[in-house]
């Protein structure tokens, strides 16, 4: 067994037994809740998980603090997660009703359900004109996302982060990230015959008719497993309408990859249902964190202080940005500059649906995991990468759904609201218009050539394009602006950002591979220069 597999095995056992015992501290050692740790990481998403593995492997005792739950124990129905058609309290983070991205179908609210307030796995954070979907739990967004593992086009990466060495990223860190995450590719022959991808083939035909190219999308969902799902040899997940509220099988989420390996180093501890509220720096330069423990019903169990020499922020674009905006504006980290909270974008997300002809059915069975996209990114006027998204309703819908990623230059800013003690995003609906315009150029043409039309019934009113939510929040603590070129926060030693908040609002593709690869690059440098050399 390789060292990595051994670590993963140890880590998976620790996660399994913590879940079975209902523990909120996960470790391969008998670890108590220490008051001081050499390194603390906020969150357990992509950036955080990479950082934990590399610190743990370097022998640095590290504590990860995660506000969500460990998702590892089946509930009474035998499943860890609910499917999209029958959501229950596990679906959402403290909501009275689910808030699914498709608000309606035939203008009817058939999609959402009343639920009990609970520490569920998907959050929708609403800021006026913009709502942001994020994952909550050990693994962050990896628990709820669509598993599309896409490396950005090099020319675009060079545009968005011109001061990052692209040779190093494409030669070393992107391949490393993909291999660690478990990225795999669909067998094109199987794709042509699979019932579960008829919806994607129908969309492909319409795109090709209009002269657009399509491309397969790599995934961290195991396509071999999916094939066996279709053959009814294994329990179904992607083919059982599981997406956005978690997958019970098939997906290599971070708890099965980086986080398992991190725990397996023996140096990493994860504390769940533990939210970092405040950060301050002490006289000796170490950081103190005010940390709130809750139970899964939201009852506050206590607040305690923790200290760390090295503090890594991996709470995602919303979480990390909020911590630093709050720290600056409450005077706890007064040397933080104006760049904190800036440069936030939606990755140009816009969703839309098309109505197909009755002779072009999409099929009753749709895989929850997308595998194909319309790739019009090289078009200088309307660059669009549109993933062909499923509507896994279990019935024939004659609908094609798309999540289009566009090059939207609009950016938002987070400001501290002292009354609510939260960072609030400044973003107006009109800032979504460039995304709509770009997508409209592509899909107007597809509709015109194919004699099809938009669906006006999917987003709660009669709009055809929905740009008021995003799955891909990026920025807020932009690399080279709020931090140096390796995520070190300007103005403070030993304080780092390691997640999607480093990326300036856009990656042109689904972002988790970029976040992972950048985190690998940054921690390499930080370990060598700041930690090993200290
Ligand atoms: P993230 O994964 O969001 O993790 C942050 C973690 O920190 C979360 O677990 C939080 O609960 C936790 N946290 C935040 N604040 C605190 C605090 N103060 N104290 C303690 N814990 C805290 O961060 N991307 C793709 O590349 N491909 C896809 O197919 C895809 N599909 C998506 C589908 C959905 C429904 C959603 C919501 C997202 C999707 N994404 C996809 C986006 C992707 O999951 C996201 O970019 C990454 O998860 C962001 O990684 P971060 O490390 O920035």
TrEMBL record:
PANTHER family: CHOLESTEROL OXIDASE, FAD-DEPENDENT OXIDOREDUCTASE 2 FAD BINDING DOMAIN-CONTAINING PROTEIN. Residues 135-158 form the Glucose-methanol-choline oxidoreductase N-terminal domain. This is Cholesterol oxidase. Its cofactor is FAD. Belongs to the GMC oxidoreductase family. Its EC number is 1.1.3.6, 5.3.3.1. It comes from the Bacteria. The keyword Chloroplast does not apply. SUPFAM superfamilies: FAD-linked reductases, C-terminal domain, FAD/NAD(P)-binding domain. The lineage of its organism: Bacteria, Bacillati, Actinomycetota, Actinomycetes, Pseudonocardiales. Residues 1-30 form the signal peptide. Pathway: Steroid metabolism; cholesterol degradation. Keywords: Cholesterol metabolism, FAD, Flavoprotein, Isomerase, Lipid metabolism, Oxidoreductase, Signal, Steroid metabolism, Sterol metabolism. It comes from Saccharopolyspora halophila.
């Amino acid at each position: 067994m390789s060292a990595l597999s051994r670590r993963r095995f140890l880590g998976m056992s620790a996660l399994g037994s913590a879940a079975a015992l209902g523990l909120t501290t996960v470790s391969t050692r008998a670890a108590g809740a220490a008051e001081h740790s050499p390194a603390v990481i906020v969150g357990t998403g992509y950036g955080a998980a990479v950082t934990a593995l590399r610190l743990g492997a370097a022998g640095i005792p590290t504590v990860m603090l995660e506000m969500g739950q460990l998702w590892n124990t089946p509930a009474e129905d035998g499943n860890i997660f609910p499917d999209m058609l029958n959501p229950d309290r596990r679906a959402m983070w403290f909501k009275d009703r689910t808030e699914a991205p498709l608000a309606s179908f035939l203008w009817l609210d058939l999609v959402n359900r009343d639920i009990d307030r609970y520490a569920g796995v998907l959050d929708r954070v609403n800021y006026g004109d913009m709502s942001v979907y994020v994952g909550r739990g050990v693994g962050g967004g990896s628990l709820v996302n669509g598993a599309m593992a896409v490396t950005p086009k090099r020319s675009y990466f060079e545009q968005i982060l011109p001061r990052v060495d692209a040779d190093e990223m494409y030669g070393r860190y992107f391949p490393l990230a993909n291999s660690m995450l478990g990225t795999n590719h669909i067998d094109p022959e199987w794709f042509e015959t699979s019932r579960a991808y008829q919806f994607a083939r129908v969309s492909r035909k319409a795109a090709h008719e209009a002269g657009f190219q399509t491309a397969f999308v790599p995934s961290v969902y195991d396509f071999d497993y999916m094939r066996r799902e279709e053959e009814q040899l294994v329990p179904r997940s992607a083919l059982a309408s599981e997406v956005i509220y978690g997958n019970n099988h098939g997906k290599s989420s971070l708890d099965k990859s980086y986080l398992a390996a991190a725990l397996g180093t023996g140096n990493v501890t994860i504390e769940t249902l533990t939210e970092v509220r405040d950060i301050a720096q002490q006289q000796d330069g170490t950081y103190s964190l005010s940390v709130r423990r809750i139970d899964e019903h939201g009852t506050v169990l206590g607040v305690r202080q923790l200290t760390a020499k090295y503090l890594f922020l991996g709470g995602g674009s919303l979480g990390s940005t909020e911590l630093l905006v709050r720290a600056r504006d409450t005077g706890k980290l007064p040397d933080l500059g104006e760049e904190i909270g800036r440069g936030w974008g939606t990755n140009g997300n816009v969703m839309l649906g098309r109505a197909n002809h009755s002779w072009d059915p999409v099929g009753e069975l749709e895989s929850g995991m997308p595998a194909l996209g319309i790739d019009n990114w090289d078009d200088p006027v309307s660059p669009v990468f549109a993933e062909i998204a499923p509507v896994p309703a279990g019935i024939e819908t004659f609908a094609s759904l798309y999540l289009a990623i566009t090059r939207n230059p609009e950016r938002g800013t987070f400001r501290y609201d002292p009354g609510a003690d939260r960072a609030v995003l400044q973003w107006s609906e009109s800032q979504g218009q460039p995304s709509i315009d770009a997508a409209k150029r592509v899909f107007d043409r597809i509709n015109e050539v194919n004699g099809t039309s938009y669906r006006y019934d999917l987003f709660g009113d009669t709009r055809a394009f929905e740009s008021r939510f995003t799955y891909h929040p990026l920025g807020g603590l932009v690399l080279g602006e709020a931090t140096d070129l390796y995520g070190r926060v300007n103005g403070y030693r030993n304080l780092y950002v390691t997640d999607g908040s480093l990326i300036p609002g856009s990656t042109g593709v689904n972002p988790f591979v970029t976040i992972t690869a950048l985190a690998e690059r940054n921690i390499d440098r930080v370990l060598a220069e700041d930690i090993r050399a200290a």
